[in-house]
Structure formats: structure tokens, C-alpha cells
Amino acid sequence: MRFIGITGGIGAGKSELLCYIQRHYRCEIYLADQAAHEVKQAGTACYRQLVELLGRDILDPRGEIDRQRMAERIFASSDLLEQVNHIIHPAVKEYLLNRLKAARVKGEAELFFVEAALLVECGYGGLVDEMWYIYADEETRRRRLSQSRGYSGERIDQIMDSQLSEQAFRNACDFVIDNSGALEESFRQIDRKLEAYTWRE
After folding, report:
1. Cα angle vertex 199, ends 193, 201, to 5°?
2. How many CB atoms lie within 10 A of CB 116?
3. Do 23 and 147 contact (CB within 8 A), yes or no?
4. Three-state SS for 73?
5. CB atoms near residue 170 (< 10 Å)
6. Backbone angles phi, psi at 118, to 5 degrees
7. What is the per-residue pLDDT across 136-192, written as a single tens digit (0 to 9) for each?
């Protein structure tokens, strides 16, 4: 089973391509953002560490961590943000590696994908069999973010400036999918890559 990391800047279209892969290949797909939500559930070690660090005022009435309250606390302090990342990122990595181990034991999937914008920064390059970079030119990404999410130009600038450059992504990844044009062409790039070691439904 191949362990593949999927990364790329915001607006590159990673979700659309993963939906295609999910429909056509025997695979398991995990989004790091969803995994981060799972590891913060009440009762987990990550939850206890975050509450100890940030205080119980980040909890909602049900006792779960309120994402908005936590965000307000940590993004006002770069020191707190760093401490929170040191708690969450290792927990997410452990969660995903456990899922990978379980998938290998189960033996039904041929491919195991993990998607996140920060895979490179979080050191997944040393864990995955290969890293894919989903690329789209800046004009296309800006148009998508404006149309689908209603982001302002200022908001888009802020997010793009916080992410890796195109060259940094390319240097860190083994395979590049150009998703600037029609989805069908991106799907063909995926099929050409995967046909070497899997089968399609």
C-alpha cells in the first residue's frame, strides 16, 4: 500500500482531486484538519494538554474545545500558537500513523492519502512514500477563492503570504499535478501516475 501526502497552496483544488481519487481507487483518505479535530475531542491527551495550557474558558457548554475561542487565544500570541502546534501536530501525526497501520492490517486499500497544506512544514516528507504537490497558478487560485469562499483580495494576500512558495513546494515534492485548467486534465494526470501500481474501478 502506497502512503501518499497531498499538499499545495490554498485554492489549488486539492479537495476536488481527492474526491475523484476516492471515487475511482481503492484507498483511504484523511484530511489533517479533520484529524486535528478528532485529537482535540474531550478525553484525549491532546485535549487535556490544551485545556491545561489555555484554560477552561476555551470550552463550549458541552465541555468540548470551541475552535473559535481557541483561535482567538492563540492567534493573539505567537508564543501560545507555537506551544499549541507542539501539542497538536505530534498528536495528529500519531493519529494518522495509527490509521495507516490499521489500513495495512485490514488489507483492503491500495492507497493511503493524507492531505494538508502544512505537510512539508510538519515533516511528513520523511514518513510518506511520496509527496504530491497540487499546483494552480495564482490567478486561478485567487479567482476560485473569491468566487467559492467570498474572500477579499486582502484576505487572500494574507493567507498566500503565510504559505510556502511555489518553488518550495516543488522542491519538497516528488510529483506535481497542474490543476490550473479543466478538472478532466487533472484527472488524467492522476490516472497516469497511479496506473503503474493500482487498479481503477
Report:
1. 115
2. 23
3. no
4. helix
5. 12
6. -105, 20
7. 999 999 999 999 899 999 999 988 998 999 999 999 999 999 999 999 999 999 999
Give me the helices (H) in the chain, please.
14-24, 32-39, 45-54, 67-74, 78-106, 138-149, 153-162, 166-172, 183-194
- 132's enclosing H/E stretch is strand 130-135
Cell numbers representing residue 19 in the block:
474526491
This prediction's pTM:
0.88
Could you give the 3-state DSSP secondary structure of residue 3?
Answer: strand
DSSP 123: T
- The number of beta carbons lying within 10 Å of the beta carbon of residue 161 is 8
- How many angstroms separate the CA atoms of 81 and 84, rounded? 5
- Written as nine digits, the cell of 82 is 507555537
Report pLDDT digits (tens) over 25-35. Answer: 999 999 999 99
If we measure between CA atoms, which residue out of 7, 9, 70 comes closest to residue 37?
A: 70
**What cell numbers appear for 144 in the block?**
476560485
Residue pair 169/120 in contact by the 8 Å Cβ criterion: yes
Q: How far apart are CA 129 and CA 100, in angstroms?
A: 12
With cell 516528507, the residue in question is 125
